[in-house]
Design goal:
Elements lengths: L1 H20 L16
Length: 37
């Protein structure tokens, strides 16, 4: 429950940062497996 709320807030903030500053922010979920090698 809390993580869904926090993830949604992170999505909102990343959208605002993109609009205001032109930054590209990747929101990463802690439940996803990272396959970066």
């Amino acid at each position: 429950m809390y993580y869904d709320y926090a993830h949604q807030k992170a999505e909102d903030i990343s959208g605002l940062r993109k609009d205001l500053y032109g930054e590209i922010v990747d929101v990463v979920s802690g439940s996803e497996d990272e396959d970066t090698e």
